[in-house]
Queue: 3 jobs
Job 1
Amino acid sequence: MSTQDSNEERIPLLQGTLDLLILRTLIFGAQHGQGIARAIQQQSDDVLLVDHGTLYPALQRLEEQGWISAEWGTSSNNRRARFYQLTKAGRKQLLRETSQWRKLAAAIGRVLGPENQEG
């Protein structure tokens, strides 16, 4: 993930977060790498920017794990691209990771406490 550009609201992702976001993005259907990156950026209101240097190794890792599959196709701008889709094992992994991240976020929220009590 990148924190560059003029937008100071962008934040780097914790290790493992990109995998979860890719899996979640693919639940809506097959997508090529550029489309996955764009979807994550748009859904995060431009807070998360996926660098291609981290995206493609993550896609390769997820494919090696059997959580996504890929095949060649033609993108909307008539370019050859690999399209990735979630596998059955990937759906199960997405459920596991989503549950873990929600528990983690809730626990961190409890430790941080309400925002209005900071002084």
Job 2
Amino acid sequence: MKKLSLKVLSFVVFGILSVWSLMTFAQTTPSGFGDVTSTTNVGVSWTGTAQGGKLIDVIKSFINWMLGILALIALVILIWGGFQMVTAAGDDAKYKKGFKILQQAAIGLVFIGVSWLVVSVIFWLLGVVGV
């Protein structure tokens, strides 16, 4: 019964973290996205004055992309750990190894989420200050 409850718990945690990992980074949409009425943005998305093109925007975009890639890698590792646990077939060592992989990937996703939060707050403060 203990193994079954651990498996159910791990799948619940896996499901929650996999959905959460897809929402860890927030891409902002420029106000002129796809605006065909603007003279500076004639039908071309992500160009002109709507996006800005400031160095800080490029850095924020790069950080968001990297956090997204890291979340995707952590999701793959979560799937691998769950696969190890499901295919253990009664082998306690293989089950524990899969559970350890699952725990470490979950901790990694938590760090990715906290990193996104810290970066978002820093960029928000920089936007408030007017840099």
Job 3
Amino acid sequence: MNKALRLGHRSRARWVACVAPLVAALLVAQPALATTPSEGSGTFTFTTPIPSGPPRTADGNTFFSLTATETIHLAIEGIATVQFSQVVHASGESNVRGVITCAVCSIGGRSGMAVFRFEGNGAFTPASPLAGQFVVLSASGGLSGLHGEGTFSSIDGGGTYTFSWHFDP
């Protein structure tokens, strides 16, 4: 092997030896950490839902598209608009799914807008409460970076919820 070729290999080896630790450090470097996860619970109440159109029926099931206002307290504080669909089965059990938009919400000492997706089922009775889960779809303002999920249980226009959340930087 000629001398120039050996020097080229040595130069490359030194370059790799200097650059490799920098590349490894960049690959391992963590972005700013998210906030510590928090948990809370609370209550909510609904206004009487307003149908978005006439109900439809098929095979003993009745289908509704509805809008309501929800007041939320404790871990989440705010007044929200809820748009949802509900299927009421002949048994009295229901399936619901929809979106909650809380335009002025407070969570974890921060305020802004939060949008949640939810779904659940039950008969809205003590023996069969409407129970389900919800998740944060998006957030803005002081709630930017909000991630979270929770569960809820509802009987006759009101209920309780639990919520786990954190904020990404």
